[in-house]
Amino acid sequence: MANITIDGKQLTVKDGITIIEAIDQASVGLPRYCYHPGLSIAGNCRICQVEVEKMPRTVIACNTRVAEGMVIHTQSEKAKDSQQSVLEFLLANHPLDCPVCDQAGECKLQDYYMEYGLYDPKFNDLKVKKTKKAFPIGPTIMLDQERCVLCTRCVRFGDEITKTNDFGVFNRGHHSELDVYPGKELNNKYSGNVADICPVGALTDRDFRFKMRVWYLGSQDSVCPGCARGCNIEVHYEKSRPYHLKEKRVMRLKPRENQDVNKWWMCDEGRYAYKAIDDNRIKKTRYPGGPTTSAETLNGQSEKVLEAALEKLAAALKGAKPGSWGVIATPQSTNEELFLVRRLFRDALKVKDLAFWAPGQEGYQDDFLIRADKNPNMAGAKRILALDEKSGDITSVVERAKKGEIENLFVFSTDLAKVFGADTLKAVRSKVKTLVFEGPNGNPTADAADFVLPSSSYAEKDGTFTNFEGRVQRIRKAVEPVIGSLPTWLILSRLLFLLGQKVDYLRADDVFDDLAKTEPAFAGMNYKTLGKGGTVWAK
Ligand code: SF4
Ligand code: SF4
Ligand code: FES
User: Fold this and answer.
1) Residues 198, 68 share a domain
2) What percent of the chain has pLDDT over 90?
3) Does one domain contain both 340 and 477?
4) DSSP string, 479-539
5) What average pLDDT does the segment 502-510 reach?
6) Which ligand is nearest to the CA of 61?
7) What is the pLDDT of residue 343?
8) Among 367-376, 516-525, 530-539, which is the least confidently predicted range?
9) What ligand has the least distance to the C-alpha of 144?
10) 231 lines ligand 2 (CB under 6 A)
């Protein structure tokens, strides 16, 4: 260990770490462009200048190691002077683009100029104009070479993380330019991350570009529902306009650092899947004898209509013969919701035909983040429902429904036509007396159902997912549920209540507390102890 001092603060840090790592541990601000903790050290932007007592010149913090007794200053006149001079050189050929730059508001060049720069520019008349302004370099990213500060973060990301070697710095000195290799395009499964790590507006996300100024965005911590990895994310949503004026509510997803799950990264499939949130949303509750037109349903009455549907469904569940219901649950649901599926169907109604595993739905997998299982909560579903791939396979429930051996079927989110084909859905529909569909997005199974109960998407509710390693992580409500829908845990709580069961859940965390009391894997956990990084089940 080494004893050092940073801006008067005494610290004991690990031997051999760099000054910038020590500075970050001490939560002291210091500008940086080329340094990124997930990439190798380049030391090329020179902005992270600090003064170290007994050293003749300032040094760069990202490529200088700490030593016993070091006294470091980040804010001394000498340090600030060096930082400011470097910034002036970096801005020498940079266009004065901020008002029309999509990075404005989250640009490190803009931020540091305000924090550390504020000099009188000496290069205004000498700017070298580089010609290639914003052009696409692949399906997800635009490059504006004029704005690049040649930090090489994107180069190192391609070389070290995806190993796709996409970028290079071409030409020398004043004429150096960042580009993709000739004849190549940026097209890998993690390409969106380069827009996140580019500290300026040189690499921007084609999907988000010019959709919204970043200061109109709110941010909520959550977890990607795209596969069993459970990458930690921030959900960025529009916070400025009233609901009815918004075209889109969730504007983009960004990775959130979690060293145990996804480090600093996420895949493109997960990043752009946010569009499905508002895709073909079910906005109308349907039930036998209920209102049929949108006007009747939505005219300020949608909550009452959903409540009436739940009352009618509860009566049907109560009066049903034992063994007449089958249930297809889903590993897209949260732990809380699956716990209530268990309480309602297995414990209260003694349903035996309960399954959750849809066969043949696996996708691409790699040895980095992407998992073949595209469900965010397969591990939680298996544990809570005490089923596995074989005993929880929905095929047997569907087959029994097709033969008329199950009278009524309750389906959560799954589209039977997608998994088994349209003929199977038709055959099931012709045999079952009551088909219930509960889910956020419409599909042929919802179209064929007698009861349709609209539920909230993952961005509209609180809850937890358990990833493939048994890590329980929180999702949080970022936007209001679509009018007329409720979170699944609330729909199930209402049904339990209407069936005369004891329910005292006001929030999703009350359900989680109950789950933690009854399911040993979750013992001792609550929303507070899960924190930002989640908690792994005890082995
Ligand atoms: S494009 Fe961005 S990340 Fe890449 S070298 Fe230029 S400034 Fe750095
Ligand atoms: S790897 Fe999986 S969890 Fe991570 S961003 Fe991609 S889809 Fe989402
Ligand atoms: S951040 Fe240290 S030289 Fe670039």
Assistant:
1) no
2) 82
3) yes
4) SPPPTT-B-HHHHHHHHHHHTT-----SSHHHHHHHHHHH-GGGTT--HHHHTTT-EEPP-
5) 96
6) 3
7) 97
8) 530-539
9) 1
10) yes
- Written as six digits, the tokens of 341 are 């599926």
Question: Ligand 3: which atom is nearest the Cα of residue 43?
Answer: 3
pLDDT tens for residues 79-101? Answer: 999 999 999 888 887 887 888 88
Interaxial angle between packed helices 488-498 and 302-318, expressed in degrees from 0 to 180 and rounded to the nearest 10: 50
Q: Are residues 88 and 112 in the same domain?
A: no
Looking from the CA of residue 153, the nearest atom of ligand 1 is 3
* Candidate of 39, 60, 155 to mutate for ligand 3, largest count of ligand atoms within 8 Å of Cβ: 60
Where is the domain boundary, 177, 205, 233? 205
How far apart are the C-alpha atoms of 73 and 373, rounded to whole Å? Answer: 50
What is the residue range of 182's domain?
Answer: 108-205
Whole-model pTM: value is 0.94
Using the mean position of ligand 2's atoms as its centre, give its distance from the Cα of residue 283 in Å: 28
Distance CA 391, CA 526 (A): 29
What tokens were used for 452?
A: 């349709």
Task: Tell me the mean pLDDT in the region 7-26.
Answer: 95
182 and 328 in a single domain? The answer is: no
Instruction: Tell me how far the alpha carbon of residue 357 lies from the centroid of ligand 3, in angstroms.
Output: 49
Residue 134 Cα, ligand 3 centroid: separation in angstroms?
26
Q: Give the start-end residues of each E strand in 340-407.
A: 353-355
Residue-level pLDDT at 244: 53
The DSSP output letter for 19 is H
Q: Is 141 in the pocket of ligand 1 (CB under 6 A)?
A: no
Instruction: Give 51-68 pLDDT, tens digit per residue.
Output: 999 999 999 999 999 999
pLDDT digits (tens, 9 = 90+) for 423-454: 999 999 999 999 999 999 999 999 999 999 99
Residues 114 and 69 in one domain: no
Residues 6+ apart with CB under 8 A from 347: none
Whether ligand 2 lies within 6 angstroms of the CB of 198 is answered as: no
How many domains, in total, are found in the chain?
3
Ligand 2 geometric centre to CA of 366 (Å): 11
Question: Is pLDDT above 70 for 232?
Answer: yes
Q: Is 378 in the pocket of ligand 3 (CB under 6 A)?
A: no
**CA of residue 185 to ligand 3 center, whole Å:** 28
